[in-house]
Specification:
Mean pLDDT: 93
Number of strands: 10
Length: 295
């Protein structure tokens, strides 16, 4: 449970959504060790269970899927303790620039590239399949597509171009630069039917750990600062992360961070569980929504 110098180890995805976290550190002296996980939520789940990080800031569907499996080992390693982003996430659906794939209908029984099994990019593939009716039309036990884990966004882009995978799903604005430069091709999108980012804490942390409360306080200040300093946010996103100024400005119009990251609406988790059960990601034997929440 001990961390380096007593600092909380906080896993995050180094994309535009991390900007308030950056502001919390640079403007409000957030005393935590921020550890980037470019491959996303699935990798953070592994790190939490291995005791490598204490806190994770990642995608709702990934956290819920990780705790809701019927074959969960032990206590699952973490609990959902906060809300980071209130708005849904737009998952863009991409294929290779020169691939003969023109629409979502072409993806049935194809190969989906994911960062990791259990990640958001994996989970949302099955939500897409459910929306398209591919699960109900599948023969018993037959998956709607072959899953190809490729770890990183770069490897996913390479994979759809060299035929390792036929398509993958990633956040729209992160993908957009690579549509604009012709590296990959956009064939559709799907929105999460829930608020998109949650904060989780390791079950190794003791209840009432003052460092977690301080983390929440500093992230709240970072979010407030973000809301009042969009020009600084655009400058940071366009110079330190992989986005153009134009895309950063457009993204700002679409996102709403939680004004108080301490809270979790159990109804959001219940809805996520319900959708993931319908999509075949979870079954009836797994952890219930209220059990996924921590104090």
């Amino acid at each position: 449970m001990a961390t380096m110098n007593g600092l909380l180890r906080v896993g995050f995805v180094p994309e535009h959504f991390s900007t308030p976290l950056h502001f919390a550190q640079t403007h409000f002296s957030l005393s935590a060790r921020l550890i980037p996980f470019p491959s996303g939520t699935g990798h953070m789940i592994t790190a939490l269970r291995a005791g490598e990080i204490d806190i994770g800031i990642g995608l709702t569907e990934g956290w819920v899927a990780g705790l809701g499996k019927s074959d969960l080992e032990g206590d699952g390693g973490y609990r959902i303790v906060g809300t980071y982003v209130e708005t849904p996430l737009c998952w863009a659906i991409s294929t290779g620039a020169k691939r003969d794939i023109g629409s979502i209908a072409d993806l049935k029984k194809s190969k989906i590239g994911v960062s990791r099994v259990g990640s958001g990019s994996y989970v949302m593939g099955f939500v897409l399949a459910d929306e398209q009716g591919w699960l109900s039309s599948s023969t018993s036990g037959s998956p709607p597509f072959e899953v190809v884990p490729l770890q990183t966004f770069e490897k996913l882009r390479n994979g759809v171009n060299d035929g390792t995978a036929d398509f993958f799903m990633w956040e729209h604005f992160t993908s957009k630069r690579y549509y604009d430069n012709g590296e990959i091709k956009r064939i559709g999108e799907i929105y999460t039917p829930w608020s998109s980012w949650k904060i989780v804490a390791s079950t190794r942390l003791q209840a009432g750990d003052a460092r977690v409360e301080e983390l929440f306080e500093k992230i709240n200040k970072g979010v407030e600062y973000f809301g009042r300093h969009h020009d600084e946010a655009v400058e940071y996103i366009s110079t330190q992360l992989d986005y153009s100024k134009e895309d950063a400005k457009e993204w700002l119009k679409t996102v709403e961070f939680a004004s108080n990251v301490r809270s979790v609406n159990v109804a959001v988790i219940e809805k996520t569980v319900t959708v993931l059960k319908k999509a075949g990601v979870l079954d009836e034997k797994g952890m219930q929504a209220e059990q996924m929440l921590g104090g």
